[in-house]
Amino acid sequence: MRDGGSQWTLVVPTGGDTLRQERLTRDLHDTLHRADGLVVGFHDAEEATEPGRKGTGVGEVALWAATTAAVARPASQVLISLIKEWCAKERHRKVVVTIAGDSIEITGRPDAAQERMAREFQDRVSGNDGPGPDDGMA
User: Fold this and answer.
1) What is the pTM of this model?
2) What is the pLDDT at residue 2?
């Protein structure tokens, strides 16, 4: 299933605390795994998580996420909403979301500028999503 549809890379930065990063990444994985229409898994250590990198690096943990079926809302909107909810549980949580070379950092306490940047990111990547809410309506 990993080779179908658009794929996002999700990294939970923790300032070098690998145990905390692993714990938080596993918690985010569990949260996203329960969502309908999303498949999520762990990047291989040798696999690049972003352009210009050879792999996740020693001690780094990263996730990939992809859609499995058509959803009523664009997949990026569903994924970003779930990540925002997860980050809001603790104000110091952050997730870097990357798709097609474009990325955004989502935090637990976003200000107005961060919210605007998240909307702009969703607008830019919406072409990589499944059908929009009005697709298929006559």
Assistant:
1) 0.77
2) 46
